Amino acid sequence: MPSSRSVVTDLTPASWALSDDQQGLRATARQFARERLEPLLVHQPDAALWSETVRLAATLDLAAMILPEQKGGMGINRHDLALVVEQFAAGPLERAAELTLSSPALMTLREYDALDRLSDRDTRHYFDGSTSIAPGIPDIDASGLWILRRHPASPVMMVRMDDKRPQLVLATLPAGQEIRGAAPVAVLGALSIERYTAVPADDAPIPVATRDEDNFGPDPVRQSLVDTAIYFATLLSGAVQQCVDFALAYSVTRQTFRKPIVAHQLVAARLADMLVSAHTIHLVLRSVAAQDTQAQIAPVSQMARHVATEAMDVARELVQLCGGHGYVEGPPPAARFQTVHWFAMLLMKVEAALRTFIASA
């Protein structure tokens, strides 16, 4: 039902026009998402079909995009990576996250020339289903931890207190059900959200980087949280765009009183509000992602709050537009309504952690 081109694209100011290379990257990812991921909003794939989808996703070469140029990659910047990952959210958010979960951690590791600290140094394996890097979101005092993970034995990028100073490390943590003080919060397809009330010890955590004594350069902990915030905001931005595309197509084909519902003033006003939200989220995300690596915490924090709130509102509006609560069984609005809040929650956890570092921004 939705068109092959997002309505949000047409509203981007001329001064923000994308280059041919940027348009090419995004178009390739969009075509893949429309063909392989968007149908999953209605029909869940069998194991063989999903394995094929993972294989095809790996051919998009996110690994090569992230690798620095000196290692044979593209060295893509955060802005352009966000444009690509945003397209994956045309399908279920948990599927999009499964295919791209390692990207924020790899961007942080690249920033500190620390990709060689991974146990598996072949970055292609982080996008072909072999393994992944789970984002670990610390509580504001770093005493607890939220994890979104795909593989139980995968490394977790997390904050660990070292002499009362936060340190960014790669650690291998047992699954939530295997230790005390931890519990699975939600299962989203192959992903699980886990909550640790205390950060479990790892005998051999691997420091990602340490801030030099003169405080030059971005703090690794802050940089990781910024990359994670941009990642979750990117997924939510893509989901909101898909919501608006579906709402516009639905309102044209759905009729009441012998005319499309889009012709009713109240419906048109709702659609306009949803379109404004999608457009604003997209531009705010691009603005923050385009900043250099020493991005200030305040705009990132503001972006996180705005995106999380607006994404929840748009998902609710879509369900109401399509017939209220009774429509939340099966069609795309159901998939959005049932998953957006989890990713919005994780984004707000990142925002809360960011606020603890705002004094040093």
UniProtKB/TrEMBL annotation:
GO molecular function: flavin adenine dinucleotide binding; oxidoreductase activity, acting on the CH-CH group of donors
Species annotation: Paraburkholderia terricola
Coiled coil: none
Entries under Pfam families matching the protein: Acyl-CoA_dh_1, Acyl-CoA_dh_N
Sequence ranges assigned to domain Acyl-CoA dehydrogenase/oxidase C-terminal in this UniProt record: 235-335
Cofactor dependence: FAD
InterPro entries per UniProt: AcylCo_DH-like_C (IPR036250), AcylCo_DH/oxidase_C (IPR009075), AcylCoA_DH/ox_N (IPR013786), AcylCoA_DH/ox_N_sf (IPR037069), AcylCoA_DH/oxidase_NM_dom_sf (IPR009100), Mito_Isobutyryl-CoADH (IPR052547)
The name this protein goes by in its record: Acyl-CoA dehydrogenase
